[in-house]
């Protein structure tokens, strides 16, 4: 079994890195606080005697090369340590630190793997500062060019490549240098299913599709008191119509569609000025690709109609678009078997969140293990999973990793 | 007649003060750019040989005391020189500079008034940085205490009193020290009526009621991908419902109600996080007080209902509340007569915007003169009035002021 105290201690230690004055955890990709988190993690990799490699998009790898395992494709265990704004401490970090824990446990047990075992912390999984999300693993899997991603402009106007260089994590390895034999990721569910059903382990068999867009509505600034309702080009009101349209459509969908407008910006943002411009993001997800496409098409048609009715101009930019992904059934079955073997309840499930595993599934057999999230809450400081559940998940990861590395 | 070249030159000179790097005019109350505008104006007051007085809330007065006029209540002509964000050059400045122009013209003509004639630039008429709007004239008229207003917190977290002291405009006169015999204000219409009807002069007989509120909606942050639509407390979605509710209600109103949500802020404002909080302002206006009250009551009821349906908590704070105002019919008739006398078309009208005259009407007979706004546009860099129309309005101000000061 893994060293529960070490794992839980590290999760808390990393979770303390990147607190603002209000105590909020904010470790956005390639920021100063991300650097602090990376430094802590790399220190642990070195302590564990792993070979540390960093690629050009800042993905960090800790590689356990045993004499017997040379020249074999490695087993890779990964996730991310960047966070959203005002985050919980488990999203991402749990999987990365459990990966390291598994390697240290196997080493301590004198286990002799037939292939290298590596742990990865991928850059910018959250997609909050730079889009798309899962950026580091996407590049690793060849789904986007490193140079294009390094040119990404952040919500704060920063350039990812410059920020990585500034924080000392623009590495020298070419992304994708490590071709995994298989990929495993352990993560908190971030949703309500496991808790509601009282099941401690999720064997994630698929992941829903994700469509992210940035919408810009241009209207005309005018006086809030003198401009009749019929003469307005109110970009803010048009934005509100888009939010309610998407919400109502997602609620009425036959599939479990979710739609979120998480960011909103008005120009000039003054109390007595009709907004001349509204910029906002749309996060639209569906486990069914047909249904996701139908929502996207309906949204596009609605925006065209709305532009005419509201006398505004509307443009949409795709920030991320990933179809649903099926994980490797062989690994899913191993997860189920490992849980049963330890006397733990397990169910197959869909992931509502995006994950690095989704990208790695393009180049290797991949699957994920979920543990429950209290109240289904994530992307919030109220994110919580019980220690015993975290430890149980890490032991399932250990069992499956042991089989895949044998 | 007034000196058209001098007036138009000053409007342009003041309009060049407070440009940001993008060329946008931003002279928010008590800011550094407001100081530059005030310094320019005070320089012109000194050049004109007027007594300059500044009160504790930063209202600036230029007073023409002739030997004959001592001890009489003055005729006051005023408006403001603060602006909104990305403003036009006419809103407020036109009336202040025309007031100065009238005094200089009367002096040059050797006119001997029976009472002092003064021009005022009131602090924070726009209400964009600090609320309520028309703050300086409200205090002058005794409608709010100076100390309470000096404690106002701005959208940028600043304190008005500290900012006035910093820019050197926390004066020593007690607000209200100058009790006017009558009050005149010349302003661009900021709405579409005069242009549409081809009438160059508006004799403003009343002003609609204004209700400003700040709404705070607290929901719960959660993951955009994993949280089913039915389990959300989405503060952003609830905010959008308020916008569409108000818009539809204003459109359906029997009175010419206008409703605007000009500012919006989401927390944590991240693409894949359900907004935990939305803060926004409501600007609701109606010429009919009964109707305005009905809208306010309907809004309050809607917010209560919405909080339950959307599983959020909602609080509302009144930022400004002014009932409709009737101007002095005697002065309105003088404006009409002066226009006819110069062969100019004139119509009585309602002001859609709030104005300092609205406050001064509490303590003196007051009325306003409007000139056309091209396309009805204001609170926008596209705000425009033809030079000839500006000059015509200033000459009507001259005529009415001459009568009232005689
Ligand atoms: N797991 C996770 O929260 N990933 C961030 C990308 C997403 O929004 O799904
Ligand atoms: N005249 C003018 O724009 N005043 C600002 C206050 C308001 O919003 O009406």
TrEMBL record, chains A, B:
Record-given protein name: Zn-dependent hydrolase
UniProt record similarity statement: Belongs to the peptidase M20 family.
Organism: Mesorhizobium caraganae
InterPro entries on file: Amidase_Cbmase, Bact_exopeptidase_dim_dom, Peptidase_M20, Peptidase_M20_dimer
Gene Ontology molecular function, alphabetical: hydrolase activity
CDD domains: M20_bAS (cd03884)
PANTHER family per the UniProt record, alphabetical: ALLANTOATE AMIDOHYDROLASE, ALLANTOATE DEIMINASE-RELATED
UniProt KW keywords: Hydrolase
Keyword ATP-binding: no
One Pfam family linked to the record: M20_dimer
